[in-house]
Write a structure and sequence with these properties.
The chain is about 25% helix and about 20% strand. It is α+β, with helices and mostly antiparallel strands.
């Protein structure tokens, strides 16, 4: 399910991504690439996917750099739970970083611009372990959705009905964790 969730949303949305460069200019109202999503959802999913890809590239570059000294230990951020073996992410364990801190890490090498706000005008929540980017679950970002209020600190990796625009959108460690999924729409 993780790869399906990632690619079901990501493949049609990365149209502005330059190969290996993660270079993009955020676009607004991307509805044609994401049927079943509202314009704000489609735009936010696209931006989060592109920011996430830039974070993965940044993390890979950091992992390959020689380290000086001993980095702090990694905390377990994700776990597999329940009989259906769903991955659960505890985002509170990844340190919060400001937009300015993340912009300094990503722009211009990985992105042309780093959006501060999602398509609803709410600030993204950026979480990156800058002290130890070698941790497996060191990167995440989320949008609070239309209501601007984060619903949880722990997220099960699963889609939700796009009609509920108040749901959080969450990307962590290379995949969408919470995302509007047209297949989940109530009929």
């Amino acid at each position: 399910m993780p790869n399906l969730a990632r690619w079901a949303l990501a493949v049609p949305l990365f149209s502005s991504l330059l190969v290996l460069g993660c270079d993009f200019k955020p676009r607004r109202n991307m509805t044609s690439a994401s049927p079943g999503l509202s314009p704000a959802q489609a735009t936010t999913v696209e931006e989060m996917g592109l920011i996430g890809q830039a974070l993965v590239s940044w993390q890979e570059a950091k992992v390959n750099q020689p380290s000086s000294g001993s980095p702090p230990p990694c905390e377990g951020v994700s776990s597999i739970e329940g009989p259906d073996a769903v991955r659960v992410f505890a985002l509170g364990k990844i340190p919060h970083v400001t937009w300015e801190e993340l912009k300094a890490e990503l722009v211009p090498r990985y992105l042309q611009a780093l959006p501060l706000r999602d398509a609803w005008g709410k600030a993204y929540d950026f979480r990156v372990n800058l002290l130890n980017p070698k941790c497996p679950d060191a990167i995440s970002l989320r949008s609070a959705g239309a209501d601007g209020s984060f619903g949880y600190a722990h997220y099960r990796q699963i889609g939700y009905d796009p009609a509920d625009e108040d749901q959080d959108l969450v990307w962590a460690s290379g995949n969408f964790v919470r995302f509007p999924d047209p297949k989940m729409a109530k009929r």
